[in-house]
Amino acid sequence: MDIGSVNSLPYEDFVDVFGNVVEKCPLITAAVWSRRPFSSLADLEASINDFIDALPESGKEGILRVHPDLAGRDLQSGTLTRESREEQGQAGLDTLTTAEVSRMTRLNTEYKDHFGFPFVICARKNNKATILRQLEERLRNERTIERACAIDEVKKICHLRLQRLVVPEMSNKL
Ligand SMILES: NC(=O)N[C@H]1NC(=O)NC1=O
């Protein structure tokens, strides 16, 4: 889909297509629809990022809280969103050993107890080793820094999800 087609989508279709670019936050997509027309995919992405940046800290934490744990209960029970399942699979989180699952679960719990929101990282840009290392390192962050870091990861996830939905303008001309 190119940006012209994106701009011509009625509200319902726009939310159907882009409703999960930020995990389980279709409200963000619904809000940015009124900022059409977008000049490019980057412009649509910037509108989403602007919306997130304008939220109060409690709103940003809300975005983090609806993210599923990595290698957590939703992965085991098959209740992840399609996007999240693919991302966690690509990072190898669906083939962890029992010992790795235990370590991830222990660290995820420790992180959540400490910050009050789940650990979020762009799985597609990582693998199980870098995810576990980041989880241990970021646990030591000061809260404000960590919240900003997690929101940056949400934006990276959103960037990659958008790219898979909208063909870059150049490749339409080939
Ligand atoms: N907890 C967490 O980071 N979840 C996410 N990361 C990612 O790449 N997809 C997700 O659902």
Automatic annotation (TrEMBL):
<dbReference type="InterPro" id="IPR036778">
    <property type="entry name" value="OHCU_decarboxylase_sf"/>
</dbReference>
<dbReference type="Pfam" id="PF09349">
    <property type="entry name" value="OHCU_decarbox"/>
</dbReference>
<dbReference type="GO" id="GO:0005777">
    <property type="term" value="C:peroxisome"/>
</dbReference>
<comment type="similarity">
    <text>Belongs to the OHCU decarboxylase family.</text>
</comment>
<dbReference type="GO" id="GO:0000255">
    <property type="term" value="P:allantoin metabolic process"/>
</dbReference>
<comment type="function">
    <text>Catalyzes the stereoselective decarboxylation of 2-oxo-4-hydroxy-4-carboxy-5-ureidoimidazoline (OHCU) to (S)-allantoin.</text>
</comment>
<feature type="domain" description="Oxo-4-hydroxy-4-carboxy-5-ureidoimidazoline decarboxylase">
    <location>
        <begin position="7"/>
        <end position="163"/>
    </location>
</feature>
<keyword id="KW-0456">Lyase</keyword>
<dbReference type="InterPro" id="IPR017580">
    <property type="entry name" value="OHCU_decarboxylase-1"/>
</dbReference>
<keyword id="KW-0576">Peroxisome</keyword>
<dbReference type="InterPro" id="IPR018020">
    <property type="entry name" value="OHCU_decarboxylase"/>
</dbReference>
<dbReference type="GO" id="GO:0019628">
    <property type="term" value="P:urate catabolic process"/>
</dbReference>
<dbReference type="GO" id="GO:0051997">
    <property type="term" value="F:2-oxo-4-hydroxy-4-carboxy-5-ureidoimidazoline decarboxylase activity"/>
</dbReference>
<dbReference type="GO" id="GO:0006144">
    <property type="term" value="P:purine nucleobase metabolic process"/>
</dbReference>
<keyword id="KW-0659">Purine metabolism</keyword>
<keyword id="KW-0210">Decarboxylase</keyword>
<protein>
    <recommendedName>
        <fullName>2-oxo-4-hydroxy-4-carboxy-5-ureidoimidazoline decarboxylase</fullName>
        <ecNumber>4.1.1.97</ecNumber>
    </recommendedName>
</protein>
<comment type="pathway">
    <text>Purine metabolism; urate degradation; (S)-allantoin from urate: step 3/3.</text>
</comment>
